[in-house]
Amino acid sequence: MKKRKILFLPHGNLQYSQLDPEKRGWVAQQSYEPLFDLVASDDRYRIGFEASGKTLEIMAEQYPKSLDKLKALVKEGRIEGVASPHTHIMLSNIDPEIGFHSLLDGLDSWERYVGVRPETGWNPECSWAEYLPSIYREAGFKNLIGDADSLFLSFDEIREATGLSYDVRSHSNKNKLFRIEDYIKDKPDFLRLLTNPTELSNGLRLIFRSDMMANPMLWYLMGATEGNRETPVQLEEIRESLERWSQRVEETGSFIMPYAEDAEYIGTSAYFYVKQFNEARFFEPMPESVDRFKELLDVSLDLGYELGTPAEVIESSQEIIKSDQVYKVDNGIAWHGGTAKAWANTVYSRIMDPVCRDIHDGLRRVSQRLGTDFGTMRDDLQEARRLLTNAWVSDSRWPPLPTTPGRFNVKESIADLKEANTVLENVIVTVGLVELKSLYSPELIRTQIASIEEELMAMEYFEESVVSVKA
């Protein structure tokens, strides 16, 4: 009998909206370290773990013990490192050259802090655009985690059958995506897309995560109800779901990836109460969720699954589907049945993004004037690019009203814009272009940043205006 593999892939982001910078090390201690200790506690446990380069950097600075444990488990082959852009950016909302070079920076950070250069990539929030497979492949990735719900909704018959649609004004369809499972449960051609890798024409291999399985597991970790039930999700419900999928794997492929969600939900409440209930509760201690995550791993093993890493589930697959269906996925979508364009349409994005684009244009023009491009420009211009990319971090732009990012999230982006403009100004002075103000005017950009800072800082922010209510 062929082995049915199962992949759990928590992903870490310490630039999270509403995660106070002073508390980021605490999250590494409260969430990442217990997760790594759990993996180390049983030889059968193997997972993937994604982290942005910035997350690794913060771990090294604020709680290096967690980074040491990650490094040891990666070296032992118990955890496969999964990389993403150095800064948690919405790739489909940003110029591809910014995204591409942030991917390279993210890989460099994994090599610097963990000692490996991952071959599997994570796409923040699973945002989508036609150029994404190209920039991941060009950056050196062999594999990419994809969003199955977005893929399925690229088929007209599934969209019509489920009644699901996209709207940049909505948060997501997260709690409705079970409708996809209801429709595909007896349709092997669709099930195969979840239980086998897909290889694109450019050679990039994709494996898909889905909220069909991940969302109930998240509610189980939180011990919460969905608002339309009296009791929280029980472990037996998770077992029944995994049993159903076990049969589907047996018939159509070789693996499933039931959990590719925020690592911070293992050990803390992360963003759960903001996202689901609009409550001003952020990153509360939840050590019991670590025990519940262990139960997810153990029930999988009890059902005969073999835990694996992303590369292992791909390499052990008996079939790789050749398909470019992902290019039919809507430009500007994201995971949870939501859209990346929702990030681009918040008031924070509408205010900050034009300034980011002006500095980006200036960087490009100065670089071209010096006879270089984004890949070959001098080190100080590269530093300006990295600062600009930091300013584009997604979590200073999310969520939409009535909730908001933290004031500190927005302050960090403004500070990065100021510093990027200063670095670019210094380059212009150094290379003798200071009088060529038609090329780039740092003085005007400085006033532009001051203008948006006044506007953004005059706003009321969610954590300041809403009293935290304990459930």
TrEMBL record:
InterPro entries: Glyco_hydro/deAcase_b/a-brl, Glyco_hydro_57_N. It comes from Pelagicoccus enzymogenes. This is Glycoside hydrolase family 57. Transmembrane segments: none annotated. Gene3D superfamilies: 3.20.110.20. It comes from the Bacteria. Keywords: Carbohydrate metabolism, Hydrolase. Belongs to the glycosyl hydrolase 57 family. One of its GO terms (molecular function) is hydrolase activity. Residues 43-180 form the Glycoside hydrolase family 57 N-terminal domain.
